[in-house]
Write a structure and sequence with these properties.
Length: 254
């Protein structure tokens, strides 16, 4: 029997050899079904099947067209997994989650990013940089929909996303819990590379063009700018998120 299509809130689909292998390694208990397309049988596909079978998961062999029908016209590389999705966090769950985070908290906050492609790219970057959670406002923001999940390439299954009603209030709550709030702004006096990011930190980025909203900016403990060498005045928000998060990671690594 081939994979069934259609939207299902109880399952999400992860595709691509790397993304599926990551789910098998980091969250095998959430994998519901796994399909591998025939006739692909190279070393990477054999390794993926062995990984799944070693976990006691049955691998279903299907035609490549069946995978395409399930996830659309994307580069799925012949590997698709149905996984039990992470439930979005509320503000209360975000604050509770902070109590058990490993290491120094590092959060990414997006204020007004409405493009799901950008949201997905930020999720992928947040996972790669080791961010503990992504915080977005419930209104005036893209949601973690199918488009964002595809761009995230599996990262949406690992990075908790807190969708909050009042972002300014949430930032106040983070500050009460001794987390510094750093905003990014082109007119900030301090360079990102001169700032101390080796502390409990929430990095805030605004929408392209508009930047952070006034109330969000007012909640920031300090503002930083990314030094730009060219004539383009700003970066795509997912690129800016990557620059900021990996600078924080670099400082934490010593």
């Amino acid at each position: 029997m081939g994979p069934r299509g259609g939207a299902d809130p109880k399952r999400h689909y992860v595709f691509g050899l790397h993304a599926v292998a990551a789910v098998l390694e980091r969250a095998p208990e959430r994998v519901l079904e796994l399909w591998c397309a025939q006739p692909r049988d190279d070393q990477r596909m054999r390794a993926l099947r062995a990984q799944a079978e070693g976990l006691g998961l049955r691998v279903q062999a299907v035609a490549a067209e069946a995978c395409t029908k399930l996830v659309g016209d994307v580069v799925h590389q012949g590997a698709v997994a149905a996984v039990r999705p992470l439930a979005p966090w509320s503000e209360a769950e975000l604050f509770a989650g902070l109590e058990s985070l490993p290491g120094t908290p590092l959060l990414l906050v997006l204020d007004g990013v409405t493009d799901p492609h950008n949201l997905g790219a930020c999720l992928r970057t947040a996972d790669a940089a080791g961010a503990h959670a992504l915080v977005i406002p419930r209104d005036r923001s893209a949601s973690v929909d199918a488009v964002a999940r595809k761009v995230a390439a599996g990262a949406a299954e690992f990075v908790p996303v807190a969708s909050v009603t009042n972002l300014a209030r949430t930032l106040d709550g983070l500050k009460e819990r001794h987390i510094w709030v750093a905003g990014t702004a082109g007119d900030a006096a301090e360079s990102l590379y001169a700032a101390d990011l080796n502390r409990p930190l929430a990095l805030v980025l605004g929408a392209e063009g508009e930047g952070m909203r006034r109330l969000t900016r007012e909640r920031c403990d300090f503002l930083v700018h990314i030094p730009m060498a060219g004539r383009v005045p700003s970066l795509n928000v997912s690129v800016a998120a990557g620059v900021c998060l990996f600078e924080a990671r670099r400082q934490r690594s010593g």
